[in-house]
Amino acid sequence: MNELVTITDRAKERIDKIMQEENYDNSYFVRVAVESGGCSGLSYKLSFDNEEKKGDQFCEDRGIKICLDIKSYLYLAGTELDYSDGLTGKGFEFHNPNASRTCACGESFSV
């Protein structure tokens, strides 16, 4: 598996905690996607899934299986997924080298 998307230790800890709280077994993976919308044109979407779809691309980092659909793969290759629970915001953060512009909230971008 290629490392299309990597995750930080904090993101891994949070993903492991969510999977445990939701009673997700090993058949589940993290689906990372890009959707139209947001202040900058494209927004990130993160969910848990256990059904593979045609064209899905898989990678694994730190023992976490990550899935990207073919459209999202083009935008997200090389992205690092992080998690912050600090005062400036709580949640998953995407550090995307392909983004030419991001909005102030960090939830949308353009290329």
From TrEMBL:
Residues 5-106 form the Core domain. One of its GO terms (molecular function) is protein-macromolecule adaptor activity. One of its GO terms (biological process) is iron-sulfur cluster assembly. It comes from the Bacteria. This is Iron-sulfur cluster assembly accessory protein. It comes from Sphingobacterium gobiense.
